[in-house]
Amino acid sequence: MNCPCSSVVEHTLGKGEVTSSILVTGFLVCKGSIDWGNSLDDSLCVCGQNIATKCTMKKRLPKIKPENRNGYIRLRWCYLGKRYTLSGLGRYDDPLDMSITQSVIGQIKRDIQLGTFDPSLRRYTQNHRQNEEAIDAFIEESNRWGLDDVWGFYKEVNQVYTPLTTQKNHWVAVDNAIKKLSPEQLDPKQSDTVVGVLMGHYSVGTLHRVLPTISAASTLAFRNGKISKNYWRRLKAQLPKGKKESKRTQKAYSVDEVTAILEAFKRDRYCPNKNAYSHSYYYRFVEFLVLTGCRPGEAIALTWGDIEGEKIRFNKSYSLGVLKSTKNGKTRYFPINEQLKECLAMQHRNPRSYNSLNLVFPSFKSGYINLYNFTTKVFNRIVNGLFNDGIIRQKLPTYNLRNTSASLYLRKGIDRATIAKLFETSGEMLDKHYFSPDEDVELPGINS
Predict the structure, then answer these.
(1) Tell me, what's the pLDDT at 414?
(2) CA 269 to CA 358: how far, in whole Å?
């Protein structure tokens, strides 16, 4: 008996035996001669042929296996003689993306078994996106980073590349600012409250230095997939508008003010009687800062080996307990004039100039000078005293002696290019930050 059936079926014999069959595209199809024997039980095949068989529908599922397509997942399979391709499922090496892909494969196979397969494949791409969004939402909610986590990640990434002085100074300032926020205010959902809270603790000038670093940390965490949005990116923009002037910008002492400051150091004018050391101990140190215009950290790190004939070599600096190169990593030489020669000669007579570190200007305990302690406990005491006595018109920190030196040399007729080279800066920076206006200028008469 021949069955003309071309349906996708498998005939299971009731009586008799199959003498021939054909396997087509993975399915057993009854299409050939069948010897049913002498005894037949007539029944109707699902294909409509009146044959003595019991027919059951049995669809063989296609093999669907993830493929690596340039690092991304791709699915390809054949079904009913047609080839299908599905991509956009994520990265091949991402365990989460691979897990979601396996769920998509399972759904495709279930739909084939149930006869609900979507040949457009839209159902599977939509469900994939929904799965990703659901998982992302779950991860974001359960593992959401707060601002403290973001800042910790930033420090971990940049620790190797950031100077120790920056870590001890600026990073500590950011640490302290973040500690001012409550656990609720550290949450990304409360990112818009950060500036308002910190303004209750800090000046606008301080926040101008702290907030950009917090924003940089937020950007780093966002780019590395640690947070879903760059929540703290625009903190500085929330500060009150207004021009911020640096305390150091273009402010310098006049010649008379410098003379008064040096004289107060030399004569211990404001030194308490119970002080462990006299202010005059640092007289030559302050005089050196005025004569060279070097950065305070460079004078603190200076050794007698850096005095080379008629020049001083500046190639290192000391700050916050760390000895490092100069600000720009360069070595520069400063000529020694008669005043400098006398200053260094007198300092060499100081018994403490013979110290284990060979420092030109050691602290009273023969170590490195702590600039913060010197400024707050010695320099500021003298400046405040002179200001309160009406002898000087302004109170500026130790660093502004650099501005003072640059301004004095420029008024003495030294050209800008030479000053810029000696001070390891640029002409533009001289004009913008160092050259102070002369408030004591006496204008000549104008002849008509």
Answers:
(1) 86
(2) 30
